[in-house]
Specification:
By secondary structure, this protein is an alpha+beta fold. 16% of the residues lie in helices and 48% in strands. Strand 15 and strand 16 form a beta hairpin.
């Protein structure tokens, strides 16, 4: 008896097996790609550490994605204004200076979210210190000073007193009892911790008394051109 199987049956079985294998391979590839689609990685988040009130700066994020997928970006800030469309770079305007021009610094949180089409975002965050230059200088100048010398038109005159400076106010106390002044002051650009111009608003007066100052961190010299008076204080 001839027990050989028909050739066409073998060929047909081979074709079916080949098709099943190819379908399985294609299906497996799709699942493999899905299972191995790694999340993107944020490599750098670049933003300044300190920004003056009201200034506009640029945030930048750099991302590595192994599959080079299309990425979407979202930015969040606790204060200030984001400008333009979200992307790997975005403009941000710091909060405006409050009504009082000498204002303490504030911390703003920045967070960026990146997605490559997967279910979860990757994110990174950082903080920026928003500051007032006037506050920084006033804070450095603040303290209690003793008057050690007074000159009018270059001539020394007798007088003792105390000057107290804070970030927002000042007091002048003179031991001879003739004067006791209380008020506030405003630093006028340009200025720094060494020298500049001060507008003094004494006893609530809306018209300032103007003087210049120089400081070395220990001595503070105030000069009024209007009265040709120089006060030298020691911290």
């Amino acid at each position: 008896m001839n027990s050989k199987k028909p050739i066409f049956s073998v060929v047909w079985i081979g074709l079916v097996t080949s098709l099943v294998a190819q379908v399985g391979m294609l299906s497996g590839c799709g699942q493999f790609e899905t299972w191995t689609n790694d999340s993107p990685e944020i490599t750098t988040l670049t933003l300044p550490k300190e920004v003056p009130y009201g200034e506009t700066v640029i945030f930048k994020v750099r991302v590595f994605d192994a599959e080079t997928d299309d990425l979407t970006y979202a930015w969040e800030v606790s204060e200030g204004l984001l400008i333009g469309e979200a992307g790997p770079e975005v403009e941000w305007k710091a909060p405006d200076l409050p009504f009082q021009e000498i204002a303490p610094p504030r911390t703003v949180k920045v967070q960026v979210f990146v997605n490559d089409g997967g279910e979860e975002d990757v994110s990174e965050s950082a903080s920026i210190l928003v500051y007032s230059k006037a506050y920084s200088v006033a804070d450095e100048l603040s303290g209690v000073y003793q008057l050690i010398r007074t000159e009018i038109d270059g001539k020394r005159v007798e007088g003792t007193g105390t000057l107290r400076l804070t970030e927002k106010t000042f007091t002048q106390e003179f031991e001879n009892g003739d004067r006791f002044l209380v008020g506030s002051y405003k630093l006028i650009e340009p200025y720094d911790n060494r020298q500049g111009t001060i507008h003094w608003f004494i006893d609530g007066n809306s018209k300032p008394a103007v003087s210049t100052y120089t400081s070395d961190g220990r001595l503070l010299v105030l000069y009024s051109e209007t009265t040709s008076t120089r006060h030298i204080y020691q911290r």
